[in-house]
Every structure is written in C-alpha cells, then in structure tokens.
Amino acid sequence: MFARAPSSLKYPVFQIDADAVMGAGVHTKEFQVKTTSENQVVDITKDVQRAVSAGGISNGLATVFVVGSTAAITTIEYEPGLISDFPATLERVAPKTGVEYEHQRRWHDGNGHSHVKASLVGPSLSVPLVDGELVLGEWQQIVLVEFDVRPRTRRVVVQMIGE
Questions:
Q1: What is the pTM of this model?
Q2: Which residue ranges form the domains of the chain, and what is each CATH number?
Q3: Please, is 73 exposed, middle or buried when counting C-beta atoms within 10 Å of its C-beta (0-12, 13-18, 19+)?
Q4: What is the mean pLDDT of residues 26-51?
Q5: Does residue 67 carry a pLDDT above 70?
Q6: What 8-state DSSP symbol labels residue 32?
Q7: In 3D, which of 153, 136, 141, 129 has the Cα closest to residue 44?
C-alpha cells in the first residue's frame, strides 16, 4: 500500500498506492449505554465486538467513541478492585468538592469535575482488528466510564476502517 518515494528531505516521504487504499472500507455502527450513577464503569467489550462483527471489516482498526463531554472510553481489567480504584484515583485528581470549577460558576450544574475527569481519560479508543476480532489482552476490557452527576443514556459510535 505504501512505497518509499525518492526524497532529499530529512524524513522519509511515502507514496500511497491508491489501488490498495481503494480496497479499504469504512463502516460505522452505534449502540446506547444507559448509566445510573457517577463513576459507573460499564464493560462494553461485547457490544463493541457485536458492532465490529456487524460492520463487516475483518482486518483494520476500530475506533470506539462516546458522544458527550462527561463520559470516557478506555480499557481496564474489569474486576471489582480496579472498578473501585480507577474512579477513586480520578477523584484525587479532580475532586467533586473542595475545588472551585469555573464551569460550575458559569453553569451551576454541579459537574465541572465530571468534565475534567472525562477530558483526562478521553472520549475514544482505537483497537486493531484481526480476522474480525478486537485485539485485546486476556484481562483487557473496553469500558465506558460515566462521570456525570446524573443517569444518562450514552451513544457509543464504533467506526471501523479496513478490509
């Protein structure tokens, strides 16, 4: 797909084989996750795998993205200790109380800390796909972490690129 192009530049330049790229496809699927509380960690690995299976991409990359600014996507070993430790660690970084958030001063919605935590973790994750399966470690699950102060229905978009 890529060929090194002749160049006098310090860094190599690659030419893209357009015919190879044209064989790649992009498919997008989505699902919803209903959360009930702040700091809830939800294992969405099976939902993401279902989306990948329905997307028809065998080899490539899946990007998992949560729509919204007070939730995040990451990987974790989904077990009770870490499900407790992860939000507790973020609480020390961006505490709910004891800090005055400018967001709170402006909007008075009680979730300035939620926005900070979600920004630190991030809204998306990219996972390689091989033979139609997510490439994850044995103890690695994809999770959605809810940081908002109220129950939410989250939209999760899975976009796959590959062949």
A1: 0.86
A2: 25-162 (2.60.120.460)
A3: buried
A4: 98
A5: yes
A6: E
A7: 141
